[in-house]
Amino acid sequence: MQVLEIPLSIIASLLICLICILVFLRFMGKTQVSQMTPLDTVNAFVIGAMVSGVVYDPDVTVWHFVWAIAVWMLLNYAVRFLSHSNFFSNLVFGKAEYLIKNGIINLALVRKNHMDLEAIKSVLRERDIYSLTDVKDLIFERDGNFSVTTRKNRQDSCILIDNGEPVEDALKNIGKTQEWLDGEMKNFNLAQGQEIFALDWTPGKGFYIVDKDGNILTKAQ
Prior knowledge:
The protein is an alpha+beta fold and 221 residues long. Helix content is 49%, strand content 19%. The protein has three domains: 2-82; 94-150, CRO Repressor (2-Layer Sandwich); 158-220, bsu07140 like domains (CRO Repressor, 2-Layer Sandwich), CATH 3.30.240.
């Protein structure tokens, strides 16, 4: 009977750990599964260490794990709340970078991301692009994926305001200034007290605006 008690206790502990992890993933959002950020990688290591402690260390009980993952969840919420600031978000999660912009390769960024030309061509071949001359922009996204714009299929839409803050890198990439954006915003006819949460701009088409309450406004150019 004593032989069966040990594995049964481990099974019960693992079951509780599994439930806690599923709750953690549910509350942290679906991007935990679909997109890996540096914070997600840290979560994977920390939660793995917590589970192994429950299984292999007799001094660590499953209730220690429950409390630990609850505290860890609160810390995650704090980090994600602070990530509403563009500075903190770029610091923790990184930012999108143009490896190729207007057909010109940025070798400094390519080397910074530990890539070479063959790695870039491999990314392009996965998208049925076999010549660098067909590429207008290649963007290394913050989640590790790549976005490609070809010269035959331009997609110039870009976010100029995110989380209520101007995205300076986006303005720089399109050759615009904060003064230009401020001038355009004066023509949006916003109601008194209405604040912009996000603003997306497409050359030749205009602005797609989302205010703090989730209301959608558009302004053609």
